[in-house]
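Progress note, sequence design subtask.
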Protein backbone atom coordinates (compact mmCIF):
# COMPACT_ATOMS: atom_id res chain seq x y z
CA UNK A 1 0.00 0.00 0.00
CA UNK A 2 1.40 3.39 -1.01
CA UNK A 3 1.41 6.21 1.53
CA UNK A 4 0.15 8.75 -0.99
CA UNK A 5 -0.35 11.53 1.54
CA UNK A 6 3.34 11.34 2.42
CA UNK A 7 4.60 11.53 -1.16
CA UNK A 8 3.26 14.97 -1.96
CA UNK A 9 5.70 17.55 -3.29
CA UNK A 10 4.16 20.08 -0.91
CA UNK A 11 6.12 18.74 2.07
CA UNK A 12 7.05 21.85 4.02
CA UNK A 13 9.78 20.48 6.27
CA UNK A 14 12.29 17.65 6.19
CA UNK A 15 13.36 16.29 9.57
CA UNK A 16 16.53 14.23 9.46
CA UNK A 17 17.67 12.01 12.31
CA UNK A 18 21.43 11.49 12.36
CA UNK A 19 22.90 8.42 14.06
CA UNK A 20 26.12 9.14 15.97
CA UNK A 21 27.22 5.69 17.10
CA UNK A 22 30.26 3.44 16.72
CA UNK A 23 29.62 0.35 14.65
CA UNK A 24 33.02 -0.87 13.44
CA UNK A 25 32.61 -4.52 14.42
CA UNK A 26 32.04 -6.71 11.32
CA UNK A 27 28.87 -8.27 12.71
CA UNK A 28 25.93 -7.57 10.36
CA UNK A 29 23.37 -9.20 12.65
CA UNK A 30 24.36 -7.06 15.65
CA UNK A 31 24.75 -3.90 13.58
CA UNK A 32 21.37 -4.42 11.96
CA UNK A 33 19.68 -4.95 15.32
CA UNK A 34 21.22 -1.74 16.71
CA UNK A 35 20.36 0.11 13.53
CA UNK A 36 16.71 -0.95 13.57
CA UNK A 37 16.40 0.34 17.14
CA UNK A 38 17.71 3.72 15.99
CA UNK A 39 15.19 3.77 13.15
CA UNK A 40 12.34 3.16 15.61
CA UNK A 41 13.63 5.94 17.87
CA UNK A 42 13.89 8.28 14.89
CA UNK A 43 10.29 7.58 13.95
CA UNK A 44 9.13 8.13 17.53
CA UNK A 45 10.88 11.52 17.48
CA UNK A 46 9.15 12.61 14.31
CA UNK A 47 11.91 12.15 11.74
CA UNK A 48 11.19 11.82 8.02
CA UNK A 49 14.54 10.17 7.31
CA UNK A 50 17.36 8.61 9.34
CA UNK A 51 21.01 8.83 8.25
CA UNK A 52 23.66 6.29 9.34
CA UNK A 53 27.46 6.66 9.39
CA UNK A 54 29.70 5.00 6.81
CA UNK A 55 29.60 1.19 6.34
CA UNK A 56 27.08 0.54 9.11
CA UNK A 57 25.88 -2.98 8.27
CA UNK A 58 29.27 -4.60 7.69
CA UNK A 59 31.30 -2.28 9.90
CA UNK A 60 34.09 -0.07 8.57
CA UNK A 61 36.81 -2.69 8.99
CA UNK A 62 39.46 -4.07 6.63
CA UNK A 63 41.38 -7.36 6.46
CA UNK A 64 44.93 -7.44 7.81
CA UNK A 65 46.23 -7.97 4.30
CA UNK A 66 45.72 -4.26 3.70
CA UNK A 67 48.93 -3.67 5.68
CA UNK A 68 51.02 -5.69 3.23
CA UNK A 69 52.70 -4.56 0.03
CA UNK A 70 51.30 -7.35 -2.12
CA UNK A 71 50.57 -6.40 -5.74
CA UNK A 72 46.96 -5.93 -6.74
CA UNK A 73 46.37 -9.35 -8.32
CA UNK A 74 47.84 -11.15 -5.29
CA UNK A 75 45.63 -9.17 -2.91
CA UNK A 76 42.50 -10.16 -4.81
CA UNK A 77 43.46 -13.85 -4.69
CA UNK A 78 44.43 -13.90 -1.02
CA UNK A 79 42.02 -15.96 1.16
CA UNK A 80 41.63 -13.13 3.71
CA UNK A 81 40.61 -10.75 0.96
CA UNK A 82 38.20 -13.31 -0.53
CA UNK A 83 36.54 -13.82 2.86
CA UNK A 84 36.19 -10.06 3.29
CA UNK A 85 34.73 -9.72 -0.22
CA UNK A 86 32.27 -12.54 0.48
CA UNK A 87 31.09 -10.71 3.62
CA UNK A 88 30.17 -7.62 1.58
CA UNK A 89 26.44 -7.44 0.89
CA UNK A 90 24.56 -7.32 -2.38
CA UNK A 91 21.18 -5.79 -3.22
CA UNK A 92 19.39 -8.95 -2.02
CA UNK A 93 21.02 -9.01 1.42
CA UNK A 94 18.72 -10.02 4.30
CA UNK A 95 20.29 -7.24 6.39
CA UNK A 96 19.41 -4.65 3.77
CA UNK A 97 15.92 -6.16 3.49
CA UNK A 98 15.47 -5.67 7.26
CA UNK A 99 15.93 -1.92 6.78
CA UNK A 100 13.58 -1.95 3.81
CA UNK A 101 10.96 -3.77 5.89
CA UNK A 102 11.12 -1.35 8.80
CA UNK A 103 11.02 1.64 6.45
CA UNK A 104 7.77 0.24 5.02
CA UNK A 105 6.39 -0.65 8.44
CA UNK A 106 7.07 2.76 10.00
CA UNK A 107 6.77 4.89 6.84
CA UNK A 108 10.21 6.48 7.21
CA UNK A 109 13.14 7.06 4.89
CA UNK A 110 16.51 5.48 5.65
CA UNK A 111 20.04 6.00 4.35
CA UNK A 112 21.83 2.78 5.29
CA UNK A 113 25.44 1.97 4.46
CA UNK A 114 27.67 -1.05 3.94
CA UNK A 115 30.52 -2.58 2.04
CA UNK A 116 28.87 -4.00 -1.08
CA UNK A 117 30.04 -6.41 -3.75
CA UNK A 118 31.69 -4.70 -6.71
CA UNK A 119 33.03 -6.43 -9.80
CA UNK A 120 36.27 -7.65 -8.23
CA UNK A 121 36.45 -5.77 -4.93
CA UNK A 122 34.06 -4.40 -2.33
CA UNK A 123 32.62 -0.93 -2.74
CA UNK A 124 31.71 1.56 -0.01
CA UNK A 125 28.02 2.17 -0.63
CA UNK A 126 24.90 3.91 0.65
CA UNK A 127 21.29 2.98 -0.09
CA UNK A 128 18.45 5.51 0.04
CA UNK A 129 15.25 3.70 1.03
CA UNK A 130 11.85 5.39 0.74
CA UNK A 131 8.83 5.14 3.04
CA UNK A 132 7.53 2.15 1.07
CA UNK A 133 10.73 0.19 1.55
CA UNK A 134 11.88 0.68 -2.03
CA UNK A 135 15.52 1.47 -2.85
CA UNK A 136 15.54 4.86 -4.54
CA UNK A 137 19.28 5.07 -5.02
CA UNK A 138 22.47 3.10 -4.49
CA UNK A 139 25.59 5.24 -4.44
CA UNK A 140 29.14 3.88 -4.23
CA UNK A 141 31.88 6.17 -2.94
CA UNK A 142 33.76 7.80 -5.81
CA UNK A 143 36.66 9.32 -3.83
CA UNK A 144 37.95 6.24 -2.03
CA UNK A 145 40.93 6.98 0.23
CA UNK A 146 43.56 5.47 -2.05
CA UNK A 147 46.34 6.62 0.29
CA UNK A 148 45.05 4.34 3.06
CA UNK A 149 43.16 1.07 3.59
CA UNK A 150 40.49 2.02 1.07
CA UNK A 151 43.00 1.56 -1.74
CA UNK A 152 41.78 -2.06 -1.89
CA UNK A 153 38.21 -0.94 -2.59
CA UNK A 154 36.58 -0.51 -5.96
CA UNK A 155 35.59 3.13 -6.53
CA UNK A 156 32.18 4.25 -7.69
CA UNK A 157 31.92 6.13 -10.98
CA UNK A 158 28.93 8.46 -10.68
CA UNK A 159 27.24 10.92 -8.33
CA UNK A 160 23.49 10.38 -8.03
CA UNK A 161 20.35 12.22 -6.93
CA UNK A 162 16.90 10.83 -6.13
CA UNK A 163 13.46 12.16 -5.21
CA UNK A 164 12.31 11.54 -1.63
CA UNK A 165 8.88 12.94 -0.76
CA UNK A 166 9.32 15.58 -3.47
CA UNK A 167 12.76 16.61 -2.14
CA UNK A 168 15.86 16.07 -4.26
CA UNK A 169 18.40 14.13 -2.18
CA UNK A 170 22.07 13.57 -3.06
CA UNK A 171 24.65 11.38 -1.33
CA UNK A 172 28.39 11.75 -0.89
CA UNK A 173 30.46 9.59 1.47
CA UNK A 174 33.22 10.83 3.81
CA UNK A 175 36.30 11.67 1.67
CA UNK A 176 34.01 12.74 -1.20
CA UNK A 177 33.31 15.90 0.77
CA UNK A 178 36.98 17.02 0.50
CA UNK A 179 36.53 17.62 -3.22
CA UNK A 180 34.29 20.56 -4.15
CA UNK A 181 33.35 18.81 -7.38
CA UNK A 182 31.35 16.16 -5.46
CA UNK A 183 28.79 18.53 -3.99
CA UNK A 184 28.89 20.70 -7.11
CA UNK A 185 27.88 17.79 -9.34
CA UNK A 186 25.10 16.83 -6.97
CA UNK A 187 23.82 20.41 -7.04
CA UNK A 188 23.98 20.46 -10.85
CA UNK A 189 21.93 17.25 -10.87
CA UNK A 190 19.26 18.98 -8.80
CA UNK A 191 20.11 18.09 -5.19
CA UNK A 192 18.47 20.31 -2.56
CA UNK A 193 19.84 18.39 0.44
CA UNK A 194 23.04 16.32 0.50
CA UNK A 195 23.40 13.54 3.07
CA UNK A 196 26.91 12.47 4.12
CA UNK A 197 27.62 9.10 5.79
CA UNK A 198 31.04 9.52 7.44
CA UNK A 199 33.63 7.76 9.59
CA UNK A 200 36.75 9.80 10.41
CA UNK A 201 38.39 12.15 12.89
CA UNK A 202 40.01 15.61 12.73
CA UNK A 203 36.59 17.14 12.36
CA UNK A 204 37.20 20.87 12.87
CA UNK A 205 38.44 21.61 9.31
CA UNK A 206 35.94 19.15 7.88
CA UNK A 207 33.04 20.95 9.52
CA UNK A 208 34.25 24.11 7.82
CA UNK A 209 34.33 22.24 4.51
CA UNK A 210 30.76 21.01 4.91
CA UNK A 211 29.50 24.47 5.85
CA UNK A 212 31.21 25.84 2.74
CA UNK A 213 29.71 23.12 0.52
CA UNK A 214 26.27 24.14 1.75
CA UNK A 215 26.97 27.83 1.14
CA UNK A 216 28.58 27.59 -2.30
CA UNK A 217 25.98 25.19 -3.73
CA UNK A 218 22.89 26.50 -1.92
CA UNK A 219 22.08 23.02 -0.58
CA UNK A 220 21.36 21.66 2.86
CA UNK A 221 24.05 19.34 4.24
CA UNK A 222 23.68 16.62 6.89
CA UNK A 223 26.55 14.41 8.11
CA UNK A 224 26.54 11.35 10.39
CA UNK A 225 29.85 10.43 12.05
CA UNK A 226 30.70 7.93 14.83
CA UNK A 227 31.79 9.47 18.15
CA UNK A 228 35.34 9.43 19.47
CA UNK A 229 38.27 11.62 20.39
CA UNK A 230 38.39 14.35 17.72
CA UNK A 231 35.58 12.53 15.87
CA UNK A 232 31.79 12.69 16.19
CA UNK A 233 30.44 16.20 15.50
CA UNK A 234 27.53 14.95 13.41
CA UNK A 235 26.05 18.08 11.91
CA UNK A 236 23.60 19.83 9.64
CA UNK A 237 24.17 23.07 7.74
CA UNK A 238 21.74 25.35 5.95
CA UNK A 239 22.70 27.07 2.70
CA UNK A 240 21.19 30.27 4.05
CA UNK A 241 23.98 32.65 5.07
CA UNK A 242 22.20 35.98 4.45
CA UNK A 243 18.82 37.13 5.72
CA UNK A 244 16.31 39.08 3.64
CA UNK A 245 18.14 42.31 4.53
CA UNK A 246 21.51 41.00 3.37
CA UNK A 247 22.84 40.58 6.88
CA UNK A 248 25.00 37.47 7.43
CA UNK A 249 23.55 34.73 9.63
CA UNK A 250 25.02 31.51 11.03
CA UNK A 251 24.10 28.47 8.97
CA UNK A 252 24.61 25.72 11.58
CA UNK A 253 21.34 23.88 12.16
CA UNK A 254 22.69 21.06 14.32
CA UNK A 255 26.12 20.18 15.72
CA UNK A 256 26.75 17.25 18.06
CA UNK A 257 29.73 17.00 20.40
CA UNK A 258 32.53 14.56 19.60
CA UNK A 259 31.92 11.80 22.14
CA UNK A 260 28.20 11.40 22.87
CA UNK A 261 26.40 8.50 21.21
CA UNK A 262 22.83 9.14 20.20
CA UNK A 263 20.34 10.40 17.68
CA UNK A 264 20.52 14.04 16.58
CA UNK A 265 17.68 15.76 14.74
CA UNK A 266 17.82 18.59 12.22
CA UNK A 267 14.93 20.31 10.45
CA UNK A 268 15.00 22.00 7.06
CA UNK A 269 12.22 24.44 6.16
CA UNK A 270 11.78 23.66 2.47
CA UNK A 271 9.87 26.83 1.64
CA UNK A 272 12.60 28.96 3.19
CA UNK A 273 15.35 26.91 1.52
CA UNK A 274 13.72 27.09 -1.91
CA UNK A 275 12.96 30.78 -1.65
CA UNK A 276 16.62 31.38 -0.83
CA UNK A 277 17.76 29.24 -3.77
CA UNK A 278 15.50 31.29 -6.02
CA UNK A 279 17.02 34.62 -5.03
CA UNK A 280 20.66 34.25 -3.97
CA UNK A 281 23.66 34.34 -6.31
CA UNK A 282 25.53 31.11 -5.51
CA UNK A 283 24.88 27.60 -6.84
CA UNK A 284 24.53 27.49 -10.62
CA UNK A 285 23.99 31.18 -11.28
CA UNK A 286 26.81 33.20 -12.88
CA UNK A 287 29.45 30.48 -13.24
CA UNK A 288 31.93 31.05 -16.09
CA UNK A 289 32.18 27.42 -17.16
CA UNK A 290 34.21 28.17 -20.30
CA UNK A 291 37.16 28.89 -17.99
CA UNK A 292 36.91 25.52 -16.23
CA UNK A 293 38.29 23.18 -18.89
CA UNK A 294 41.39 22.37 -16.85
CA UNK A 295 39.17 20.68 -14.26
CA UNK A 296 38.90 17.70 -16.62
CA UNK A 297 42.65 17.33 -16.96
CA UNK A 298 43.73 14.30 -14.93
CA UNK A 299 47.46 15.03 -15.07
CA UNK A 300 49.04 15.33 -11.61
CA UNK A 301 52.11 17.55 -11.19
CA UNK A 302 54.29 18.34 -8.18
CA UNK A 303 53.65 19.06 -5.36
CA UNK A 304 50.62 16.74 -5.58
CA UNK A 305 52.30 13.57 -6.81
CA UNK A 306 51.80 10.71 -4.37
CA UNK A 307 53.11 7.16 -4.61
CA UNK A 308 50.45 4.47 -4.28
CA UNK A 309 51.22 1.75 -1.75
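Output:
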Amino acid sequence: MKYICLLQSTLRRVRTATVQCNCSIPDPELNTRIGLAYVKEAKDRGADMVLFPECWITGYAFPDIVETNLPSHEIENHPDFRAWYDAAIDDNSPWLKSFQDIARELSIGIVITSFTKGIKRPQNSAFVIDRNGEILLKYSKVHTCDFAAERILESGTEFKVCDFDGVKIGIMICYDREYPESARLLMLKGAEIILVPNDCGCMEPRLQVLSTRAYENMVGIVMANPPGEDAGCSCAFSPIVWDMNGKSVKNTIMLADNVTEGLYLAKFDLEELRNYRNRDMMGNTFRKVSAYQELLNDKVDAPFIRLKR
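The chain has seven helices and twelve strands. Work on this subtask will continue into the next period as scheduled.
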